[in-house]
Write a structure and sequence with these properties.
This protein is an all-alpha fold. It has helices spanning 3-15, 19-47, 52-79, 84-87, 109-124, 129-145, 151-184, 189-192. α2 runs parallel beside α5 (109-124) and α3 runs antiparallel to α7 (151-184). The longest helix has 34 residues, at 151-184. The chain is elongated, with a radius of gyration of 18 Å. The termini are far apart.
């Protein structure tokens, strides 16, 4: 099944659901990211009582997320894929307003951000994987459900966020841990020590 066909299947299904589910999905698109951000902040606050590497990993969550978002925007500027809510003939109307012309579809920024946050949180606080990974997946799915993205946009965004967070942790955890050790000895210790 092609992404366009799957988009039609999901958006047709979405239109057959009650209005409260439409509202839940529209709010969940942003709410999932906000919840992941809140968990990242809580994880950083909690990590300040632990070892320096855990603090560094918690600090890397927003850094990896910002890098993932920037990469996503760069990819969007080269790909220029029209939103399916405008481009797919015969598809059900989107539940949320279709983003304006020039706000390209590939990859999904929401999915990229959600995946980067979730994967970063898992590196910093593995016990939350059961919660944050489904939130990221549901956030991505909601982008198709509300009609804003093709399924391949979401898959690409999830992959991009995952890859970026993994690379940031792999490349930056060591140097950032050293910085945390130095900060803990200075006047910035409130950021890294409870």
């Amino acid at each position: 099944m092609y992404s366009t066909d799957l988009y039609r299947v999901v958006t047709d299904f979405a239109h057959d659901t009650p209005g409260w589910i439409h509202s839940l999905a529209a709010g969940g698109t942003e709410g999932g990211i906000l919840l992941l951000m809140a968990l990242a902040v809580f994880g950083w606050w909690r990590s300040r009582k632990g070892e320096e590497r855990l603090v560094a990993l918690a600090i890397l969550v927003p850094i990896a997320t910002a890098v993932a978002y920037l990469v996503s925007e760069i990819v969007k500027s080269f790909v220029n894929e029209e939103r399916p809510c405008r481009a797919v003939a015969g598809a059900a109307a989107s539940i949320v307003p279709c983003p304006p012309q020039g706000d390209w579809s590939f990859p999904s920024n929401h999915s990229t951000i959600a995946a980067a946050l979730a994967v970063g949180i898992v590196f910093a606080w593995r016990a939350l994987a059961w919660l944050v990974l489904p939130i990221a997946l549901l956030t991505g799915f909601s982008r198709v459900f509300v009609g804003a993205h093709y399924p391949h946009d979401v898959v690409a965004g999830l992959a991009l966020g995952t890859l970026t967070a993994t690379l940031c942790v792999t490349l930056l955890a060591g140097p950032l841990t050293s910085l945390v050790v130095r900060l803990a000895a200075g006047r910035w210790k409130i950021l890294v020590r409870a």
